[in-house]
Amino acid sequence: MVMIITIIAACTLFALSLLHVFWAFGGRWGMNFVIPEQEGERAFSPSVGMTLLVALLLSMAGVILLLQGNHISLPTKYLIVQVGAWICAIVFCLRVIGDFHYFGIFKKERRTKFSMMDTFLYIPLCAFLSFSFIVTIM
């Protein structure tokens, strides 16, 4: 069961990474639902560099998950992999909790397209990803 969870989570992370690369190079699909809104306007506009950085971090998280879950073999177990797994678990857990305004389970803004997607997709997805890292650590 752990193997299935980690493979699904890693594939999800790689798919999300590719989606961020798509957005960085001008793709528009899904853009109406991924950035928080403030008074009908985007709360921020990420740069191409930032979007590519997020893509890189997501793919690195996928590799860390596969390494920690022993789906990719290394001759020795490296501390950086275990530390990376803990960091990823904590980051995705913090994303679930949110910023208390725009995203997360304690958000105040609940009427925008983003906040509805956050409630029904992004929060459960981040909880699953955090759980996946915790499962591989234990």
Task: Provide structural commentary.
The protein has one domain. The protein has helices spanning 2-24, 48-68, 79-97, 113-137, and strands spanning 37-38, 41-42. The mean pLDDT is 92. The two termini are 14 Å apart. The protein has a two-stranded antiparallel sheet with strand order 1-2. A hairpin with a 2-residue loop joins β1 (37-38) and β2 (41-42). 64% of the residues lie in helices and 3% in strands. α1 (2-24) runs antiparallel to α2 (48-68) and α3 runs antiparallel to α4 (113-137). The protein is globular and about 55 Å long. The protein is mainly α and 138 residues long. The chain has 4 helices and 2 strands, in the order αββααα.
Order of helices and strands: HEEHHH
Shape: globular
How many helix segments?
4
Number of domains: 1
Which structural class best describes the helix and strand composition? mainly alpha
Overall average pLDDT: 92
Largest sheet: 2 strands, antiparallel
**Strand content range:** under 5%
What is the CA-atom radius of gyration, in angstroms?
Answer: 16 Å
How many runs of DSSP E, i.e. beta strands?
2
The parts where pLDDT drops under 50 for at least 5 residues are none
Distance between the termini: 14 Å
Helix content: 55-70%
For the biggest β-sheet, the strand order reads: 1-2
Concise account of the structure shown:
This protein has helices at 2-24, 48-68, 79-97, 113-137, and strands spanning 37-38, 41-42. It has one domain (2-137).
